[in-house]
Amino acid sequence: MGPEFVMLSLPPILIGLCAALACALPGNFLLLRRQALIGDAISHVVLPGIVVAFLLTGRVAAVPMMLGAGAAALVSVLLIEAVRRLGRIEPGAAMGVVFSAMFAGGVLLLEQSSASGVHLDVQHALYGNLESLIWFDGHGWGALLDREALRGLPPELLRMVAVLAVVALFTGLFWRALVISTFDEGFARTLGLPVRALALALVAMAAMAAVAAFDAVGSIIVIAMFICPPAAARMMTDRMGTQVAWSAGFAALSAVLGYVLAGYGPLWLGYDNAVSAAGMIAGVSGGILGLTAVFGPCRRGGAVVV
Q: Residue ranges of the alpha helices (H) in 133-183?
């Protein structure tokens, strides 16, 4: 692996790796809380907020887009409550209506902005931007020790590393409280744990990971990483700590192997063009889930041991 790998492939692999891990960590708790589709919901809800923020500022910047995504999430909560009360329907149906409508509105905004020459487009939102995240100053492995060269790293990498660190720190600090409230909410309340605050913080961590990863890896990888690695890990063990470790391993394997297969697999088979890295990463994670569902030692379920 020469200078070309460092410049063209190393940053996208690291970004995909950090995004996969940042989504998989909270995904374990969301899965066991039967809230695994929150990652899907978040990826749908943030799209119009991100587009509106871009149209208002005229540039791709992390802070305005995160603010726009947060505002969209707040609007979605208010709309879900309004639809539920006015329509007198169950919360799941209200969520489905609001999430679908907001995602459709985001797609329409993207189409309109694309027609007027705006940088974002539908493919960018769905498939991400991994292949174009090049480190122009990465002339060989020695650049990793060059302070000037490191300043030219794609900002998406620095952002994903920071988000992964925050998510990992949150998981480590509140591990015991998260585990207890996940498996026995009533017992957690008797211990005086802030159950509702923990649930909101967990969703906030998931939202942070989804928003940070959205621009670089797209909604396909975000959805897959929230669900597939934790679900596959659940098939491998009945211990919570081991499950999280398995999910991190599966997420890392999906990101690295998926990117390599997308970029080099077609060339190995004699084709001229690579395929979508986002699609391949999601496909590999789905394949891992399928294998664990067939061969995993805990595929028939059972109690989870803390």
A: 147-150, 155-173, 175-183
Nearest to 247 by CA among 228, 219, 261, 223: 228
Q: Which residues of 154-171 are buried (b: 16+ CB within 10 A; e: fewer)?
A: bebbebbbebbeebeebb
Distance (Å) of CA 156 to CA 7, 18, 180, 201: 15, 10, 34, 23
In the chain, the amino acid numbered 199 is A
Task: Domains for the chain: give ranges and CATH numbers.
Answer: 3-295 (1.10.3470.10)
Sign of the C-alpha dihedral computed for residues 57, 63, 65 and 70 taken in this order: negative
Containing 271, the helix (H) or strand (E) segment is: none
Q: How far apart are CA 306 and CA 299, in angstroms?
A: 18
| Bridge partner residues of 239 (DSSP) | 305
Element (H, E) at 40: helix 38-57
d(CA 177, CA 192): 10
Sequence letter at residue 237: T
User: Rounded to 5, what percent of the chain is helix, strand, coil?
Assistant: 80, 0, 20
pLDDT tens over the chain, length 306 residues: 666 777 778 888 999 999 999 999 999 998 888 777 776 677 677 778 877 877 787 766 667 777 777 778 777 767 877 887 787 777 667 777 887 888 888 878 777 765 444 455 555 555 567 777 888 877 788 888 878 888 888 888 888 999 999 999 999 999 999 999 988 888 888 888 888 888 878 877 887 888 778 767 777 778 888 899 999 999 999 889 999 999 999 999 999 999 989 888 877 777 777 788 888 898 999 999 999 999 888 765 554 555
Name every residue whose Cβ is closer than 8 Å to that of residue 21 and which is 6 or more positions away in sequence: 164, 168, 248, 251, 252
pTM of the model: 0.82
